[in-house]
Amino acid sequence: MWALIVDGSINRFFKVPTAFKHPTTGNQYPRNWITLASNSEKAAIGLIEVTYSGSYGDSEYYINAESAPVYNASAGTVVITKSKTARNLTTLKASKTSEIETSTNSGMSSTDWYVIRKSETSTAIPSTVTAYRTACRLVCNSIKTAITNASDLDALIAIYATADGISDPISVNGSSTSVVNTTTNTITKSSHGLSNDEIITYSSGVDGSNDANDPIGGLVSGNSYYVIGKTTNTFKLSHTNSHMGDAAAISLTGVGEGTAHTFTSTGIPSLGNSIPRPSNLAYGIE
């Protein structure tokens, strides 16, 4: 955006290049002139590109605003200042509590019929369905407690903030028994840098003919897993994370094929982003 300065004040704005007539000189300028003119040519007629200072916040938590443009003749600038005002914490907490209750009920609704069937016919609820519903309630209640305990806006935001994981993929020799331990269900990678609950996407890689390598037994190339039980040089994988209360190491049943199996991080989900889904392979309901 540009501002046209005439007689020491802002005369008009151009959000996009537009043909115009200068109000003082009467000179006509075609639509593409603003794009093609040099900075010195634009400055010569009083045309200044508008700049911004300050910053906005996440609109879920802040009310964003911007000031009127301010012309500074000595600096030769026109500046619009961005600002943010925190929304009411009590209102946000009530909204977030209602939101997690609604989303959890919605997620569990597809399995409600198992509960109804048991009530009406005494047919047992499958253990995977019970595990899923238990995990949903656990995470929901934990989130509600965290919301209640949030003493300020930063604490509330942190409930939903995903942390960064490792920046680069790690590569292991998936065909080596010294890397893939089927007894302890661990994968060894020196100083891997992974964190518990970090989500990593697994790839078994390809061979010299560009055909997919056989994956490590128990894993599926292209699937994502949570890191659990990590040490400095080893880690285990799970379909669920610690917030769900049922994280368990996936059984590794054998080595794969190829020497360049990779694990790529997509971050460390927070409590607020840990509500399980029925399609999670730990439950396999959908």
> Secondary-structure element order, as H and E?
EEEEHHEEEEHHHHEEEEEEE
Helix content: 10-25%
Supply the helix-strand structural class: alpha+beta
Radius of gyration: 29 Å
The whole-number mean of residue pLDDT values reads 96
How many angstroms separate the termini?
Answer: 50 Å
Which outline best applies? elongated
Uncertain segments are none
Total of DSSP H or I helical runs spanning 4+ residues: 6
How much of the sequence lies in strands comes to 15-25%
Write structural notes for this entry:
The protein is α+β, with helices and mostly antiparallel strands. The protein has six helices and 15 strands. The strands form three sheets. A seven-stranded antiparallel beta sheet has the order 9-15-12-13-14-11-10, with no helix packed on it. Strands 1, 2, 5, 6, 7 and 8 form a six-stranded mixed beta sheet that branches. Strand 3 and strand 4 form a beta hairpin. The longest helix has 23 residues. The model has no long low-confidence stretch (mean pLDDT about 95).
Task: Give structural attributes.
25% strand, 6-stranded mixed sheet, single chain, 6 helices, 7-stranded antiparallel sheet, elongated, 286 residues, alpha+beta
